[in-house]
Write a structure and sequence with these properties.
141 residues; mainly alpha; de novo design (two linked rop proteins); 74% helix; 0% strand
Length: 141
């Protein structure tokens, strides 16, 4: 079943919580003066949340799956940057582990949503539901 809005997707809300947690943790310690690192990790978290929304709003399953892939990759980027933040002393290892856990959980849910959408499209009902809908294929002239 398709969600009517991206706001109705649980994973979007989880990604939103990740953004809030990343912003909160990057207001302090070494992040405060390392503008480029702070900006990069914040942008990665925002990218996860935003790509879920943008892909959903595009309307097509193929595009949605593409944007979910980007969102999942952004979660990996956040996790990687959190390791670096720990290594250089910007974040406590306990906090880093908790944030990485949040990012990993968002990534897992993104993958589950993508898998469910693929299964839905592959099912006879999914194909039938899309029958008669216009496609974006170009016709040969």
């Amino acid at each position: 079943m398709n969600s009517p809005t991206f706001e109705s997707l649980r994973v979007w809300h989880d990604a939103r919580q990740l953004v809030c947690a990343i912003y909160s943790h990057t207001k302090q310690n070494g992040f405060a003066s390392d503008f480029s690192f702070k900006d990069q990790i914040r942008r990665a978290a925002l990218s996860a949340m935003s790509n879920i929304a943008e892909g959903h709003e595009r309307g097509g399953t193929r595009e949605f799956l593409h944007f979910l892939t980007i969102a999942k990759g952004s979660c990996g980027e956040v996790r990687s940057q959190l390791y670096a933040a720990e290594d250089i002393g910007y974040i406590d290892p306990k906090d880093g582990a908790a944030l990485r856990g949040m990012a990993a959980e968002v990534a897992r849910k993104i993958q589950a949503l993508a898998d469910a959408r693929k299964d839905q499209e592959a099912s006879p009902l999914g194909r039938r539901a899309n029958a008669g809908k216009p496609t974006k294929r170009r016709q040969a002239s």
